[in-house]
Design a protein that fits this description.
By secondary structure, this protein is an alpha/beta fold. About 50% of the residues lie in helices and about 15% in strands. The protein contains 16 helices and 9 strands. The longest helix is centred in the middle third of the chain and has 17 residues, at about 95-110. The chain is elongated. Residues about 1-10 have low confidence and may be disordered.
């Protein structure tokens, strides 16, 4: 359990949107005023923050940065097709329960007694045998940051479950009873908009659309994450990535790929981005063969743009 004062995590870095933006910057996450304000309000109003946008725009990284600036644990629930409540809440440690049952049988057998079925069931479904999944952990560990990643990959039934949990900040385990968060977790939900998330869930949240950063901000991000990166190389990489995002690729690069590309160029000793260095390091920024093949034939034009 976390022994911090429950108020510390929400109050310390968030006296204002400006203060929060500065705290996020200290982790390497550069937030514009709109993002900082939406995040500040989510923290102060105790509302989940629903972040939507293209892959690679910093949605997941925002939750990671918030965990750093609040000094709390980041608990991540990765959504996928077919995910259900049990995968998000809890399970029972069956191997340990079985060992416990065998120990009881051995002890009562040696004493010439019979097992009491009710007593055995009560001892088997004890909190010590409970395996907390992400949502239950976020309710137990307070304060915390709960990242519900790619909620658009889950189904309607799971959305309804999330709505209930995020409203009540509590779950009921039949064998144990209700578990309620002493301090509700700071919840960040992300969506790549592969499908529309239902209005009921969105209404429970504050909404934030994240787009790719503009050229200057992306250059700032590169300098923040890669100290010592030459100014010319940072500007060339950021400009080339912006051109790639306009090139109708299967998987346009996100900010993470921008950083990877600049880092790869640093490692091979490049001082500026030219056709040869771009071609040699293209695998750091493009993840599909079709995209790489197409871009290699257009590197001259791309770097000139």
């Amino acid at each position: 359990m976390n022994d911090r004062d429950p108020g510390d995590a929400r109050d310390a870095p968030a006296d204002s949107p400006v203060a929060l933006a500065q705290a996020l910057r200290s982790t390497g996450y550069l937030a514009d005023s709109g993002l900082a304000t939406a995040t500040f309000l989510a923290m102060k109003m105790n509302r989940p923050l629903f972040c939507e946008g293209e892959p690679g725009t910093g949605k997941t990284a925002l939750a990671q940065a918030l965990a750093q600036v609040t000094g709390t644990e980041l608990i991540r629930l990765q959504c996928h097709d077919g995910i259900d409540a049990s995968q998000a809440l809890y399970d029972w440690d069956f191997p340990r329960q079985l060992l416990h049952l065998r120990a009881l049988e051995a002890a009562t057998g040696a004493a010439g007694e019979k097992l009491d079925a009710d007593a055995v069931e009560a001892s088997l479904y004890d909190a010590r045998f409970l395996l907390a999944r992400p949502i239950l952990r976020a309710l137990q560990i307070t304060p915390s940051v709960l990242l519900i990643d790619e909620v658009d990959r889950a189904d309607d039934e799971f959305e309804a479950f999330l709505l209930e949990v995020l409203t009540e900040h509590a779950v009921t385990i039949p064998e144990i009873g209700e578990i309620r968060a002493k301090v509700p977790p700071l919840v960040v939900l992300t969506s790549n908009r592969t499908r529309e998330v239902h209005d009921a869930l969105k209404r429970r949240c504050l909404y934030l659309w994240l787009d790719h950063p503009d050229l200057q901000r992306e250059i700032e991000i590169l300098h923040s994450r890669l100290p010592g990166l030459p100014e010319r190389l940072a500007a060339q990489v950021a400009g080339a990535v912006r051109a790639l995002r306009r090139a109708d690729l299967l998987k346009p690069p996100g900010v993470a790929e921008t950083i990877d590309w600049a880092r790869a160029l640093q490692l091979v000793g490049a001082r500026h981005l030219d056709v040869d260095s771009a071609a040699a390091t293209l695998g750091a920024v493009l993840k599909y063969r079709e995209d790489a093949d197409r871009v290699r034939t257009q590197l001259d034009t791309l770097l000139a743009s």
